[in-house]
Amino acid sequence: MSARATPEAESPEPAVHDEEIHDLIGIGIGPFGLGLAALADPLPDVDAVFLDQADRFSWHPGLMIEGTTLQVPFLADLVTMADPTSPYSFLAFLKQTGRLYPFYIRESFYPLRSEYDEYCRWVAAQLDCLRWRRRVVAVEEEGDHLLVTAAVLDATGAVIGCEHLRGRHVALAVGTEPHLPPPLAELIGPAGGAPADEAPAPVLHSADYLRRKDELLAAGSVTVVGSGQSAAEIYRDLLQEGGADGLRVDWVTRSPRFFPMEYTKLTLEMTSPEYTDLHRSLPEGTRDRLAREQRALHKGISADLIDEIHELLYRLSAGGREVPSSLLTGAAVRAARRDSGSGRIVLDLEHPLTGSVAEHRTGAVVAATGYRPRSTELLAPLGDRIRHDDAGRLDVTRDYTVDREERIHVLGGEEHTHGVTAPDLGFGTLRASVILAALTGREPYPIERRIAFQTFGLPAAR
To answer: pTM of this prediction?
Structure first.
């Protein structure tokens, strides 16, 4: 549905007009939106409401692989770095669920991924400001406030009504969506070359991994495409579960190596207000170049997982056994098709360093090829009031606004302007603190503006 669509026309129900003018309307209830909601909740001078098209909170359900953990410490929860005393902290969740002492004895800063999802759902259940099954289709100006139009959905996703809400500020936290490179995206859909009496060989994004895992295990061979943490976790999970039974699991990445995520202390200082100041001040082209160069800062694989994979390969090869796997680095997927005879998938690979090309045949493909920002077309009715850069992306100011009046705030969609702090869970609370300060004219949560020992850029003259 476009930003200018009218959900009233799709629904037999009349539109509902919320006559109250809210201080803040949040669009999207992922971790960043939920964190802002949790921090806004206790403030007496902030009336906030948050909308999401989902029917409940759910964080990457397709990647809740048994035993996987966050790549950031538990302090990077929804609230703690802004307010360590918040009743919505991860430690408060552990205490209420009777797991604080087991977590303490475990002596690991890194929660299970499933545990983090459960924690977020625990917080969401306590917040009255969340409205689920609301798909926002437009944000417009209406006098001195902003008018937000949302389609109301039933459990199947069908439109059953429409709501109009009014607010002084809007926070956009629409998140990202799975990205498939064109050669693989073209294989999604009809069976193509698969025999008429057989299902097509599965091709899926890693976001759907657990939902379709049984299909992959039955495929005979699976190729994982990608270089990050998700690719590594899926490769290990498939090889661990099916490798001993003959399932072939290959891993292909265009990266020159399976690179670890950088996690040294001075590198972590780049997740700071000071580095954000530098990054935001740079020309657009320089920021884009840095985004490519800094992939290892947040898109690499944890060093422990790399070691675990090597240990798994070592165990499977014990006694001279041949491991049913190949790991190909520096191999770019240039084209993909289904073989007309077998229905299997054929990937055309190219190695840019050597110039060599090869065909790779497989029974299934899992594309751990990342995510892209969701469309912000819902802001289209605001026209040129919204700033865009030369590439058509939102031009987000240092304080996370995109409009002249500084009433529309962005959470998590500013990696191209702010750098590595944008996707970092631990930085979400600082960004929320900045937004709430703009709403209230005070700092309900003190903003730490200097946290790094190092200086980014040249120091000012003394």
So the answer is: 0.92
